[in-house]
Amino acid sequence: MPIFRSEAQARILAWLFLVPDREQPIATLAPIAGVAQPNTLREVNRLVEGGLLRERRAGNTRLVAANTASPYFQPLVQILGRAYGPAVVVPQELAEVPGIELAVIIGSWARRYQGEAGPPPNDVDVIVVGSPPPRALRRANARLEEQLGVPVQLTVVTAEDWAEQPTVFLQTVHSSPYLTVLDNTGAEQ
Amino acid sequence: MNAAAQATIASLISAGEVERVPVDEAVVTNLLRQAGNHLRTAAAGAEADDPEGAFQLAYDACRKTSLALVMATGLRPKGQSAHVATFEAAAAIAANFGGRQTVTDAAQLRYVRHGAEYRAETVSAADVEDALAIGDELIKVLEPAIEQILQASS
Fold first, then answer.
1. Interface of chain B toward chain A, CB-CB under 8 angstroms
2. pTM of the predicted model as reported, rounded to 2 decimal places
3. Per-position DSSP letters for A46-76, written without gaps between them
4. Subunit contact B124:A134, Cβ cutoff 8 A
5. Which of A18, A20, B7, B122 has the highest local Cβ count within 10 Å?
């Protein structure tokens, strides 16, 4: 996303802003930033100097976290959530799994995405419509949790149930905000 | 055990999630016997239209097979996340025997288990069938590994 200074900067911000109680040694951020340690350090230093990250020292270790008191915190959470959050990562992972007709994000992530104010949700709920192979779906679930750093619940429902909403759960889903992130229904016809 | 497995085990020990205990061959054998029994009962449960019960038993069979491997190396998981620690330690050890992916697949059954236990979701026939298949694969891969470990230590 060309909004940010670099992809590495955006990834560091997303990792720390979308889970604001996450506090982490700078040395462990390089794999998340996807660049070498010196570049990661430069990006982190800029963000600390700019007041977007707060820093704490524990012995020789520099720990950083999102500065939730920054006036940019809330708007950045919105932008990062949109650009790097579940709405982007969930369809990327689920596109690899066969047998999925539709994937929709429900619950607090869907509400935040559609503008409800509040801190980033601490889990992600997704309805998967179709009949994906269970093992492939569970592997995707694990990769999603690794990438997003929060619990991810995938609930599989059949296309028939999704259309007819026979349960209170599905009726509630349909009457609340939800976000369709993957739609293969056109491709299959 | 290779260096990566040793590092994983060392970090689990220092986090207090596993502890060193003397190897008790009878306990290990008993766990494997229980796992085999659980898989048979699970398969019967699936036939008898009890997918949730069948799944729970198949999951438990996977956990006990993994626990047998961990205990054969003189380690015992403890604490609140003992299930997680069991699978983490077993995956690290199983990497030496080509069984890492199967243990990981077994550990990931927790997604279905949590859905069934805590969100009252139903368990699909496909999930039961896959859990039974993973249980069988796990025994096939880990039983010879466990025998090898016990022989080497006796």
1. 104-105, 108-109, 111-112, 114-115, 119, 121, 124, 126-127, 130, 134
2. 0.82
3. HHHHTTSEEEEEETTEEEEEE-TTSTTHHHH
4. yes
5. A18
